[in-house]
């Protein structure tokens, strides 16, 4: 498993497109939001900035890289090659996704730490951590599911757009407008309840009991994404 | 070669929707044997091979490799090397990194440099897979299959795209594997390779065995042939011969030496010169072509 992960890490650093998509783009966007935090805090709140940077990393860094990596490895039959060895499917998948997941986790941790240093510590760090975990798990599952309907890395540029736009759009909508209006719809959208959880965790001012209720839809989306992944993902190209 | 079956296929059936790719296929491959699975396009040999390798699940029937399910990777894969029909390498990894990675995952031990030496890729060790030629990729594929000298090696179209020197090198390496006691399962479109090397051949057609046996057993089911032309106004030969469209005479016989002797004696006695004389035993090609008439 770790030898696969090491191989993936080598490939990420050799592939400029993946490097830019996974590293440069999310960090550049996050740096912009943090640099302009006064402006974006007026539009939404500091929690809103945290939510948007989280979903930038989750969508462009983790989700898109997951789909592109798996589609590419399947298209060139690398997955079949790995399945010709003694390692289990779970081991293969863990090895393939470990680098992008760890990179995304480290990116989010670093970016949110910088935001906290610049703007102040979040009210409930544990809630922020749970929101980050739920967001990354959901995007990982959705990445596996989307890879199942993606034929090639080029095709991934199209198939990743809906989920990326919906999650970032939802984070922006909930982050700016809050959930006073259309609360059910916003919480049921992918990333909606996670964003609200992050807002409550970062900004504070909401009873903990009200925030804990958001764990339901947040982890329900994790369950949905994992279910979709197990049903849609395929190891070999369509013939 | 011993009588212990390394592969045991019993009434294997494989279906894709309404299409039956493999029907009631049964055969065994013994330890140390070189077994060739041949067939027409779409005969079901790749489906059969991939089921034995553990890449596919049988619709019905059983497949045992080393007495275990081939789907049990942890138990079976460390003992088998698989050369896939298509490349399956990551283009951004180097040759050395690819062999090391796949080698580690097989859980066998070997030296990467030794394996690269076998396939003459030592000088390309630092080259990315994306920069290799088609033949070099096939050699890399072979290198990963023989990493750690596995007990069972699957070779799926191993020499496709290789030049003559590389083919010879590959077969030399296969000979060394056999000397080390490995069992070889081969699929190929180059029938002469199977004819020269296989202990037994399974000839598939429409999902089932058309014939199975040694080369000699397969070829003796069809008659040998004698071809020749006769000068104008020559008498008819003493054996039953048919005249082909090109004017040549064709004698089909299961007693090649005796009938050839009779024909040559007749020609000498009558001072007849046999033109374009060709005589030979049945080849695997002839057996293969005969499938089409089934």
UniProtKB/TrEMBL annotation, chain A:
Localisation per UniProt entry: Membrane
Membrane topology: Multi-pass membrane protein
Bilayer-crossing regions: 17-35, 47-71, 92-118, 124-146, 158-176, 212-233
Pfam short name (any one): ABC2_membrane_3
Keywords annotated in UniProt: Membrane, Transmembrane, Transmembrane helix
Residue intervals of the ABC-2 type transporter transmembrane domain: 40-228
Family matches, as PANTHER family: DOXORUBICIN RESISTANCE ABC TRANSPORTER PERMEASE PROTEIN DRRC-RELATED, TRANSPORT PERMEASE PROTEIN
Protein name stated in the entry: ABC transporter permease
Organism: Amycolatopsis minnesotensis
